[in-house]
Amino acid sequence: MPISIPLSELGYQRHYEVRTYEIDSQKRMNVPAIARLMQEAAMQNVIKMGLSVWDLEPHHISWVLMRKQIKITRMPVLGERIVVATYPSGFERMFTYRDYKVFDEAGKLLAASSSCWLLMDTASRRMAPLPDFILAYAKHMPPAEACLPRPETRLPAFKTPEYTRQFEVNWHDLDFNEHLNNTLYIKWMLDPLPPAVLTRQQLQKLDINYRAESQYQDVVQAQVQPSEDGAFLHRLLRVSDGKELAVARTEWLNG
């Protein structure tokens, strides 16, 4: 029997079944796949609210993800039915916040994610202020105690990479803003990790800070640095100018 998860009045939820192209060698959903489902749920939510990228086009603004933190209790497995839920969770100055939760069929929380967004002026590619028609939703936001903690503000400084991989941004890597899809930032950051980590451990926490957009035909280097506390630091650099596109930190458990 499909479950229903109580949400904010602005929220959205959908049932999914884990598919073969979303799993790893352990038959568990992989991290980029769960991030894609969260992104899709958010897109459907803003379409429902009338705040999608297409609704915002006449105002020459578009949503840009700045920060995302994912905490995972258990990854769903092949064929498992899950519920992905999301809702806007508040405003702060020029930033907006959104929460995501993933549940199993029994209603047990599998993963949770908090995120921070801003609006980009599509002409100047610079940060844009939140217009009044978006701020008007403030009165419908859930109370702070019902929301996830907002992403922490700072990540440790990246120093020396131990593992690297290089990628080129191809046409089908682009999103509707014509820059590298944010879920591919995550995939490319994780790919250089040693196979022993990817096959024998499970991601427990991912904290990523998106710093710059990457565009068609950019060559991007993914770097990974082991941390003294057993975690890993990650970053993406644009090779042509050394621009830091994103940084992240991951924590892993033996799977």
Number of discrete helical segments: 5
Helix content: 10-25%
H/E topology pattern: EHHEEEEEHEHHEEEE
Secondary-structure-derived class: alpha+beta
User: Low-confidence runs (pLDDT<50, min 5 residues)?
Assistant: none
Question: How would you describe this structure in keywords?
Answer:
5 helices; globular; 255 residues; Thiol Ester Dehydrase, Chain A; eleven-stranded antiparallel sheet; alpha+beta
Overview of this structure, please?
- By secondary structure, the protein is of the alpha+beta class.
- It folds into 2 domains: 12-146, Hotdog Thioesterase (Thiol Ester Dehydrase, Chain A), CATH 3.10.129.10; 163-254, Hotdog Thioesterase (Thiol Ester Dehydrase, Chain A, Roll).
- Helix content is 16%, strand content 38%.
- It is built from 5 helices and 11 strands.
- The chain has helices at 31-49, 53-56, 132-135, 182-190, 195-200; strands at residues 12-17, 61-72, 81-92, 95-104, 109-121, 127-128, 163-168, 201-210, 219-226, 232-238, 244-254.
- Strands 1, 2, 3, 4, 5, 6, 7, 8, 9, 10 and 11 form an 11-stranded antiparallel beta sheet that branches.
- The two termini are 29 Å apart.
Task: Write a compact overview of the structure shown.
With 255 residues, the chain is α+β, with helices and mostly antiparallel strands.
Task: Chart the SSEs and their pairings.
Blueprint: E1 12-17, H1 31-49, H2 53-56, E2 61-72, E3 81-92, E4 95-104, E5 109-121, E6 127-128, H3 132-135, E7 163-168, H4 182-190, H5 195-200, E8 201-210, E9 219-226, E10 232-238, E11 244-254
Antiparallel strand pairs: 1-3, 2-5, 2-8, 3-4, 4-5, 5-6, 7-9, 8-11, 9-10, 10-11
